[in-house]
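Sample 3 of the quickstart, ligand adenosine-5'-diphosphate:
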Amino acid sequence: LELEIHGTPLPGEPCPGVVLVIDDVTALSKLEGVRQEFVANVSHELKTPLSSIKAYAETLLSGAINDPEHSTQFLTRIDEQADRLHSLIQDMLGLARIEAGKEQLELRSMPLAPIVASSLGDYESLAAAKHVRLLSEIAEEQLKVVADEESLRHVLGNLIDNAVKYTPAEGQVSVTAKSLERRVEITVADTGIGIAPEHHERLFERFYRVDRARSRELGGTGLGLSIVKHLCQAMGGEVTVSSEAGKGSEFRVTLPAAGN
Ligand code: ADP
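Result:
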């Protein structure tokens, strides 16, 4: 950037008065880009299930309703797509609340083992149906974290849900935890499809998916990890991933440890 300022002093004035304002709009236009991308993503995500619902409803109305086999099939699809819209809206509202700082977190000290056990319990039947083994190993029964219980359950539930979803039959999902200096590290590991390193950086972005079709098929909204990241940060912790394609994944959550 080169600037040349020429000015002729007015009679009686020592020099011309110049006010120079330089605005760096780089950050602003980047933010605008992110916003536009988000709106485009949201529209796309909402339109897809809506188009399916409309298409099935129209087919039913144009006669398929009189064919019991097809009508049940189409109504089931409509029901599934409506569920998908519901999860998407729930996740978007949840994320917006966390981002706006409106989520009231109640941070307190709590034992970790029972929360891990009940989070794993929620996925028992899903895992059993897929022939995936669920394990938990928490070295110290007395391990305590400082967290908001509902958010911690949400974080663990989301990571376990993904681990079960992206692990084929006969695989294994485990939750382990250990204490580090003033922190507790919780690891959700699976023996599933894994994630190639080039995706790791963007994995926690809203709507980022490694395989869009597979995620949709499994009922994902693409917002789960973004919510996990925000909740961890709100509790003074963080979440990281280490994974290789075909070799399973490990998601690590660190939270402040509770003093005894
Ligand atoms: P989704 O609803 O699509 O599962 P998430 O935000 O939870 O969205 O995850 C983003 C993407 O990260 C997923 O679409 C999937 O590609 C990848 N992913 C997340 N967890 C795992 C896992 N345990 N194993 C393999 N891939 C995963």
